[in-house]
Design a protein that fits this description.
With 379 residues, the protein is of the alpha/beta class. The chain contains 14 helices and 16 strands. Strands 1, 2, 3, 4, 5, 14, 15 and 16 form an 8-stranded mixed β-sheet that branches.
Length: 379
């Protein structure tokens, strides 16, 4: 495969402006950015050229590994199918969010994080994957098996981010028990006659395991220099706790007060791209667009819909007067990359990785046409 690439007649989305021009790369790095149409090369016909998207939190791999209840798909094929969807969404760097700790003994994905991590590494070493894959370990604190599962997954290598989660009913994401019941009953995850007993059991698990697990996970992260994120902060007290824990990211804060406090205290505020596309949270929490309008948004994550990342960036640029296209693209490229120390990518600039996406908006919606990773076309 060629290590030299020249793309012309493009709308280049740079860090602070969009220009018409061309780009060249050699050996995986951007070597030239020229305004105007003087260069010859691959004609993008006026489409946008943006940096490859950087995704810090997607649990989408689980839907390929366990496509239906009780069905466990061959793990290598699950990883390859997941990667194909990630690349088609314009994502060139992805942190796969694998779980450690399970509320439900039948939950296969939460008990096999190390198996998924090993399959990712094997596929990547064989050159079978289009995107650059890393691991984000989601630690469910109220569960008895959390620490053991985390240690097994970390031993496989590649973990660069840990999030501290607590999905106990009535806490954080579901501060309202009514919303919790609405969500779980609506998805038929729990029978109506069993939901009160389920809630009581999970509250007991939280009391028994959450705090001890949190301290052990934080100590582990510090000992091996892995970044930490808080998750679903609902109150200013939650944010204060995250700062004491050494977190650098506040994932999906569930109230305006928590989002503002996190931003003010220097945490990178990460919100869901599906929230932007849908115009609100699926669990009844705050609007990501409102957070962006407040100037408190730093990162977008596709969470459970890979294609939402690009859609959300263009939606913000169109709907929020204070956010330019360059700023909106920052939320899905340089913003997440810089936060986790990946300073070699995330922007169209000399010397940066030639991770690039051709985006057409001729139909009024952003459509990924082609994707390059380190100057080599992967889609």
């Amino acid at each position: 495969m060629s290590k030299t690439l020249t793309l012309t007649n493009a709308q280049l989305v740079l860090g602070d402006e969009t220009i018409s021009g061309s780009l060249a790369s050699s050996n995986g790095l951007i070597t030239a950015i020229d305004q105007g149409s003087g260069q010859s090369g691959d004609d993008l016909e006026g489409d946008y050229l943006i940096p490859g998207l950087v995704e810090l939190h997607t649990d989408h791999l689980e839907s390929h590994f366990q496509p239906r209840p009780g069905v466990e798909w061959p793990v290598e094929f699950a990883v390859i199918a997941h990667d194909a969807q990630i690349a088609a969404a314009g994502i060139t760097t992805v942190f796969n969010a694998l779980r450690a700790g399970s509320f439900d003994p039948s939950d296969v994905s939460a008990r096999q994080g190390e198996k998924l991590a090993a399959a990712i590494h094997k596929a990547q070493s064989r050159g079978e994957l289009r995107a650059d894959h890393l691991i984000h370990l989601r630690c469910e604190l109220p569960c008895p098996d959390t620490l053991e599962a985390a240690l097994r997954t970390i031993a496989e290598g590649g973990t660069q981010l840990i999030s501290l989660m607590d999905h106990t009913p009535g806490a954080r994401q579901f501060t309202s028990l009514d919303k919790f019941k609405e969500y779980y009953l609506g998805k038929k995850l729990i029978l109506p006659e069993k939901i009160d007993a389920y809630i009581a059991e999970k509250l007991l698990m939280q009391q028994e395991y959450a705090e001890a697990n949190k301290q052990r996970i934080i100590e582990l992260a510090r000992s091996i220099n892995i970044s930490v994120a808080s998750h679903d902060d609902a109150t200013i007290e939650h944010v204060d706790e995250a700062v004491r824990d050494g977190a650098i990211i506040a994932e999906f804060p569930s109230s305006l007060a928590a989002a503002k406090a996190a931003h003010d205290q220097g945490l990178a505020v990460l919100m869901g791209a599906p929230n932007v596309v849908r115009g609100g949270s699926h669990s009844g929490n705050i609007s990501a667009i409102e957070i962006a309008e407040m100037g408190c948004l730093d990162i977008l994550s596709s969470d459970y819909v890979p294609a939402s990342l690009l859609q959300a960036a263009f939606t913000l640029a169109a709907q929020v007067d204070s956010i330019s296209l360059s700023q909106a693209i920052y939320f899905v490229t340089a913003g997440p990359a810089k936060t986790v120390g990946l300073t070699d990518r995330g922007e169209i600039a000399l010397g940066k990785r030639a991770d690039l996406v051709q985006v057409s908006v001729k139909t009024g919606r952003p459509v990924v046409r082609r994707v390059w990773r380190e100057g080599v076309r992967v889609l």
